Amino acid sequence: MNKRFFLAAAATALATGLSPAAAQTFPSRPITMIIPFAAGGPTDVVARIVSEAMGKSLGQAVVIENVAGAGGTTGSTRLTQAAADGHTIMIGHTGTHAASVALYPNLRYNPATDFAPIGLVNTNAILITAKKALPANTLSEFVAWVKANERTANNAHAGIGSVSHTTCLLLNSIMGVNPQTVPYRGTGPAMNDLVAGQVDYLCDQVVNVAPQVRAGTIKAFAVAQMTRNQALPDVPTTTEAGLPGYQVVVWNAMLAPKGTPAPVVARLNEALKAALADANVRARLAELGADLPTDVQATPAGLQAFIESEIAKWTPVIKAAGVTASN
């Protein structure tokens, strides 16, 4: 460790009550990574891929702890109560650290100020999908159909505050419609009814819907990002398909408790960047349709700015819809 890093570690340690030696030797034991959702979901899968590679870089195991509940806010609250020494971190996402501000009137944390950002982990494109029998074959035809059938049209989602809920709220807002929404207890049941033709359309992450698109059991109209997604290269972007205003991806981000020493955050950021540079990690994330962060987003400062921009983006959309998690 060079002299400049040691002096920075010592100064930060004195300010936070962490000894210089402890800051210098971090991590001194296994790291707990909180995933605020049940095992097996998209965030959990990404976290396990990245945590394994981070453990090799840090020289300590990174142990996953699934703390599900209240749209991910239970696990997020758990992190705010952990010791700010870097040995407990979490993967937050669009719902826990952006949409939650408007969805939960009594949210027990402030996503913009109660965490120490480490870096963005990945983004995942949203796909606009519909039941196979829907009489539309392009995005423009889909928008026209929803507008013409607003009173009877419906969209499925995985529950209030879920990614599939908030992203379709934004889509409906851009289309200028207010169709019926049908909540389910998870994306799985929602997808089952979409395949069965019981609901009309669904907005969700590529990783969740790509298998059904490839199988031809549902229609895919567009992916809501600037470039085509590597997992479904034949699906046009919303810009190509005529709805450029709908640009939305969901994301996973790594965070530590507020007050975690800067040298410790820097060490965790180094390990995250090393993991995302690993060829095996990149290949596995590509299979999921996940995109890697930009160089700026992968920094603590870049993530902080990104979270603030996402809160500003989602708050008016959710408030305009008059939706809260208690609805």
From TrEMBL:
Keywords: Signal. SUPFAM superfamilies: Periplasmic binding protein-like II (SSF53850). The keyword Signal applies. It comes from the Bacteria. Residues 1-23 form the signal peptide. Pfam families: TctC. Belongs to the UPF0065 (bug) family. This is Tripartite tricarboxylate transporter substrate binding protein BugD.
